[in-house]
Specification:
Number of strands: 0
Oligomer: single chain
Radius of gyration: 17 Å
Number of domains: 1
Helix content: over 70%
Length: 87
């Protein structure tokens, strides 16, 4: 990122930096997606290359799916071990 973009408050995609919850959720999903493909390729492709604009949409959707899977597992385990005894 150039000093020009940083001075204007833009991120690597040339969009204004927004410190909202949505922006944080998107960034974390992209990181989960990039990390997933890094692990699938056994580190043959550098993580820096996977974290580029070219792969951002793919990383975003895979990251969302990973988050939903973790959430589903947590809800299932909570229902199975905690909430089931209360009902």
């Amino acid at each position: 990122m150039t000093k020009d973009k940083k001075a204007r408050g833009e991120n690597i995609y040339g969009k204004p930096e927004i410190s909202s919850g949505h922006d944080i959720a998107v960034t974390s999903s992209q990181w989960f997606g990039a990390l997933f493909f890094y692990l699938i390729n056994f580190g043959k492709i550098p993580l820096k290359e996977l974290w580029t604009r070219r792969y951002s949409r793919r990383n975003l959707w895979i990251g969302y799916l990973i988050k939903l899977l973790f959430l589903a597992i947590i809800v299932f385990l909570a229902w199975k071990y905690y909430l089931k005894d209360m009902v």
